[in-house]
Amino acid sequence: MSKLYALVIVDVPAMQTNHPYTYLVPKQLHDQVAVGKRVIVGFGKGDRHVQGFIVDLREDLPTQAGVTLKEVQEVLDLEPVITQEGLQLADWLADHTFAFKIRCLQVLLPNALKAAYSKTLKRLQPLDDPQIDALFGQSDEIDLAQLPAQFQNQIIHYRHQGKVEIIYHVKDKVAKKQVPAFKLLLTPEQLDQVSVSPRATKQLAMRDYLKTLESTKLYLQKPAQAASGLTSADFRTAAKKGWLEQSQVEQYRDPYADKNITATKPLELTPDQNFAVKSVQAHIDQKDNRTFLLQGVTGSGKTEVYLQMMAYALKQGRQALMLVPEISLTPQMMRRVKGRFGDLVAVMHSGLSAGERYDEWRRIERKEARVVIGARSAIFAPLDNIGIIIMDEEHEASYKQDEMPRYHARDVALWRARYHHCPVVLGSATPSWSPARGR
Questions:
Q1: Which of 34, 107, 299, 337 is the least buried, fewest Cβ under 10 Å from its Cβ?
Q2: Does 315 share its domain with 214?
């Protein structure tokens, strides 16, 4: 077997280390390494362990005589966390902002993947390997660190089949939101045979309610209580009697779950608004990265124009990304976008908790959300088929990042538009950008 080498950008931000280092990949890790994955490598004379990103893999790389390469110690991910687009974007960002490459790679990730974390392996379907199945025991989730190395390749195969998934647990920062759930242990026919005293009205109500449910399905307990009028104590009693099995399951944190958002329908456009929408739609169809300037004062109807442009991109099977300044991320704005696109919307801004931001990023990465609205950092959302990018109030100073890498979100938006072959719409009453200047 030929030798395999990994070119790694290490997490040591300095001029002297701002380039890839070459590491030998041990044979047992050949099937695990991939470009875009994070690894642990030894670095420096003290051989301290640091995290890094694989940016290239090569075979039979010529090395200097007498030089012994260090080996990759551990592969942290089953799937790449940085896409090919992300690697190219990081290269451009490093050149454009004169920032360290490691900082440009890290800005693409949510805080959950930058911080210290632990990982668990969750079984989504029965596995055809008895040895791996046995590791789970009675649970569907195990600590990934407990997985023997010889099973890594098979787990990667299961991951591609959608039978398992990796869940990141952020230490001391983000804990999974756990909510009570249950599933039936008895079929409706078996529940009919259960003897209940006529005076035990709560138990009778519980039995009758459970008979209406599917015996193979997992139910969240809070909605079940609301639907049945029963209490958590009633469900505990049913569990003690062996009618159902209670558990705790992870649930996405939804910062807008209790906002009573009402669905809305598109409004009739004025001739000027309709002209703007049709013009952008044509370039969505053509997959052209033309940049448009939508000039209009507050209250002139720009938001409705944005919404109809985004709806068209979704209709074409693509995704939509909308940036607004932090000051414009008002509940009213969120309601308008959520009201039009519902659960397809993910929100990314600094007003969310670390856990909420992490969960929104996962929804985007898993393609559960196709519309992203957020402030400056949302420009790095892991969308893979963008059909339109909208930047409202593009003149606002809050689109500039003051820390390394010091980027302007508008510049990143124009880069991603070229990559995805999609139009960009810049909205403002006092624009700082013009097609003539290109800035």
A1: 299
A2: no
